[in-house]
Automatic annotation (TrEMBL):
Record keywords: Oxidoreductase
Pfam families cross-referenced by the UniProt entry: GFO_IDH_MocA, GFO_IDH_MocA_C3
Annotated transmembrane regions: none
Organism listed in the record: Streptomyces lincolnensis
Protein name as catalogued: Oxidoreductase
Length: 334
């Protein structure tokens, strides 16, 4: 099949490399407002460079991958759907939830599949955790702990446009909690602080946060996030039931150091970047998209899924600012 990629920055170039190595993908069509970025990706991974999204959509592509700036996501999703071309779009659907809802309304009733990029759904550990919950082997759940710690904060320009740590970082935890447990979040309480980069505080954001999520069956989920984790990129999940407890991310590249005597775990070099931690998951995610394009599977992460994680992020943002519990019903507008 022939896949178009819109946006050849860091993640777009990474997707170009991944797609170029998939057996199902015969050719790539690339476009980026910065022509040199598209040309560089074409030289490295192969592909035809065109000068606009319109030219790409007219180039006979079977599916498109949207890795452009967030502001461009709604228009590119809708352009793909209007052209009848399956769409993969990196999260979020749109910069704001209201824009995301408008996208959902615009595509409702269309049979053109749309997949939103939440790569943890394709990580083997999280896949195994979901299977364990679904099988009932853990018994009734009572506690979930989800952690995402970045090794260093992104630059100030990124922070200013990110929408805040809950919408940019924690949203991955929110999505994977829903996906693994099969439950919905009903209420949140969030706290946050600034102990690091001043520009994060100046942007009105927190650099370290914690959130308590109450799920619709009474399970409690604890989410921990930070922009500062000098030892590396730390993504983990614990799931505790009345019969058994399991963990995702307890492997030799875990960026933690044990101080217990005689303990050598973890023994490997810590993960230091999200692309390192989730290389295999990204490959599995884009492989799934080729199956969506081929019509052999439905979208594994819909716009509706992405918006549900977004409502949780909005509720946590409000909770942090107003120092109180917030229900999802309070922030949901659709």
């Amino acid at each position: 099949m022939r896949i178009g990629i819109l946006g050849l920055g860091r993640i777009g170039a990474f997707h170009a490399e991944t797609l170029s190595g998939l057996d199902a993908v015969e050719s790539l069509v690339l476009t980026d407002p910065f022509t040199d970025a598209a040309k560089s990706a074409a030289e490295r991974f192969g592909g035809e460079v065109v000068d606009s999204p319109q030219a790409l959509l007219a180039a006979g592509v079977d599916g498109i991958v949207v890795a452009a700036a967030t502001d461009a996501h709604p228009g590119l999703i809708l352009a793909g759907v209007e052209a009848g071309i399956p769409v993969f779009c990196e999260k979020p659907v749109a910069k704001t939830m209201s824009e995301g809802v408008e996208v959902l309304k615009a595509v409702r009733g269309s049979d053109v599949p749309i997949q939103i990029g939440y790569n943890r759904r394709f990580d083997t550990g999280f896949v195994n955790a979901r299977a364990a919950v679904q099988s009932g082997e853990l018994g009734k759940l009572h506690t979930v702990r989800s952690t995402t710690l970045d090794p260093a904060p992104p630059p100030a320009a990124y922070i200013a446009a990110s929408g805040g740590i809950f919408r940019d970082c924690s949203v991955h935890d929110f999505d994977i909690i829903r996906w693994v447990t099969g439950r919905e979040v009903t209420e949140v309480y969030a706290v946050g602080g600034n102990r690091g980069a001043d520009y994060i505080k100046e942007a009105g954001d927190a650099d370290t946060t914690g959130a308590i999520l109450t799920l619709d069956d009474g399970t409690i989920a604890v989410v921990s996030n930070s922009r500062h984790n000098a030892r590396g990129y730390d993504v983990r999940m614990e799931i505790h039931g009345f019969t058994d407890s399991i963990a995702v991310g307890l492997e030799d590249k875990l960026p933690l150091r044990s101080v217990e005597p005689g303990v050598t775990f973890p023994a490997g070099t810590p993960h230091d970047f999200f692309m390192d931690r989730f290389t295999a998951a990204y490959r599995a995610e884009l492989t799934a998209f080729t199956e969506v394009v081929a019509g052999t599977r439905p979208s594994p992460c819909t716009i509706e899924d992405a918006l549900e994680a977004g409502w949780i992020a909005d509720a946590c943002t409000l909770s942090l600012h107003e120092h109180r519990p917030v229900t999802i019903a309070e922030v949901r507008t659709a």
